[in-house]
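User: Hand in any protein.

Assistant:
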Amino acid sequence: MSLTVYSNVDLTRRNTMGLNSRARYAATCLTPRDLNSLFEIAQRDQLKVFPLGSGSNLLLHDWIDGIVLSSIDRSVEIAPLENQVDFGAAQMLMELESLAAEK
């Protein structure tokens, strides 16, 4: 498992205005297994999970009492015969379109 959960995390650089923000916990998920493990921890410890994307125009509260989740899962699985594409939460849409067009 590659999941690591950090405590008392500074999120100041993660919000557009650079406002002071901290999270009780934060984790970066690389795989679906990491994500499942994170939710198991959150459920066990009765913590809320706050997904955090990499978009702009984001303002964060000064204290987030839970686990802030970032995903770096950029995996792609294309099954042309089933007309199915599975991809990670951090996969960029334009890159995904290019990959799918190649198949």
